[in-house]
Amino acid sequence: MESMLKVHHLSHNFGSHWALKNCSFELEKGDFLFLSGPSGAGKTTLLRLLYASLPVQRGSVEVAGFNLNKLKPRQVPLLRRQVSVVFQDFKILPHRSVYQNIAIALEVRCLPAQHIDRRVRAVVRGLGLENRIDTPCGELSGGEQQRVAVARSIVVNPQILLADEPTGNLDPELSMRMMDIFKQFHSYGTTVVLATHSRDLLARHPKAKLLRLDDGKITEANWPGAIIENCTDDDDTCAIGPLTMPDGRTAHGRRRR
Ligand SMILES: Nc1ncnc2c1ncn2[C@@H]1O[C@H](COP(=O)(O)OP(=O)(O)OP(=O)(O)O)[C@@H](O)[C@H]1O
Known about the structure:
Radius of gyration: 19 Å
Bound molecules: adenosine-5'-triphosphate
CATH topology: Rossmann fold
Structural class: alpha/beta
Shape: globular
CATH superfamily: P-loop containing nucleotide triphosphate hydrolases
Largest sheet: 6 strands, mixed
Oligomer: single chain
Helix content: 25-40%
CATH class: Alpha Beta
Number of strands: 11
Strand order of the largest sheet: 6-7-8-3-9-10
């Protein structure tokens, strides 16, 4: 199977606070992963690292064949052609319409206008936004804005789709519809990583891969490609992970596989 994500000994700190501690896991093409854990556990931090919106401080990350430890600024747009993200704050343009907010993801790729129009309208239909297509996004409800953010991320057909609580603002029916869309993309071969608090969502997808974070550490995983570190925070190297040297060796002098 083709590897899509390799995260080894990943730790990340904000000042003196370690938001991620020595996380290691791998995903293959077409995997569907739920990232769970309480508020503050490090889910968003992990997604931001995978999207290269935070620099890798410790450990190593490979996403869709890109080594993020060595990623140059000019390579970031290339990575983001393969990886789409829906963040919690949506990042949509309030004065632009639903159509424009979604089309922009394709316009930056200089695709033919007809092709853009077809794809945007198909996604808008799929997410039930037809009657809001010309509405400025600033006038939409939270749930509608969330659907626009999801539409913009899937319209580009990414290899990897990262989503941070994509059903958080939606009622149960829309939430199911949104999940159906993620599952549809997954069935086309897209690798999906979805962060959620929702126990209900996890219970409804018992076959998906699950990674639980607590206080920055992996505490639960249901497949062998993830490592649960049984160590305490007192053991610094174990909890925070070995330092990665620029040549890829760890501070222990062991070369990574
Ligand atoms: N930019 C930042 N500056 C300082 N601390 C941060 C920053 N971003 C996150 N943190 C801290 O890192 C920890 C992990 O935060 P993160 O947002 O990754 O958690 P989360 O699991 O996504 O939480 P939620 O489910 O509430 O979104 C928290 O303690 C948070 O306060």
